[in-house]
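sanity check this:
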Amino acid sequence: MKKTGILSKILVIIVLLYLYVPIIVLMILSFNESRYNSLPFKFSLKWYEELAGDAALITAAKNSLLLALVTGIICVILATFFTVGQQYLSNKTNGIFNSIVMMPMSIPWLIMGLSMLLMIRELNFTKNMFFVTAGHIIISLPYALLVLRARMSSMDKSLEEMSASLGAGWWTTFRRITLPVLAPAMVAGGFLSFMISFDNFAISYFLMPNGVSTLPIEIQTSIKFGFTPEINAISTIIIGVSLICLAIVGVIMGSNLKSLAGGKDK
């Protein structure tokens, strides 16, 4: 039994090292003065300064940021209304709805992007930002919906019933009871949708109009025509932003769980 436990721990450590050591190395090399990532290591912010002057990467980062922000906001709004409205559906209709909305989680994004591109061409439409945003919403919505649905399932239904029994209408009950309860999950779901959209490559690659680029596309293009250390710098920034978003989501969901546990104890 002890040998099995030790082997399991070693296996976990090996997997973690395999996953995270390359990321740590990339972040360290972003501060290395050498263009060719050669040793000895010499600390420098040179590549971050070069990045600040790279108009293509900065523009692509702004496009990704705006696209992810719009996607996150729309996903939160749709997920909120879907979550609230689902409780009024029959079990059969609810099951069909869940299958349709959650399907993008089981379909590779490469296939999703290609199929949307073929659909656009068959309908004689041109690629534009509307279709890019729609594609990002389709793949990001299930994640926001899962977070909100988990919060809704833990909500005390008697609160809405008491509100209705006191004469409050649907909108008043939603605004004063349901919305404040869902607010932490809405923020968490929004951050998840934002992160998924910001890092997405496949959907943007197939649907992005000519002359417009996102950060993942720009990084892929830069690597294709020759690696530059600015990629290390922008990748480090992306990792930092992602970690901050994950930390915020973790804090929000952690405080949310504590409040639920406190409410149950009472």
Q: What stands out?
A: The mean pLDDT is 79. DSSP finds eleven helices and no strands in the chain. The CA atoms of residues 141 and 233 lie 30 Å apart. The longest helix spans residues 230-265.
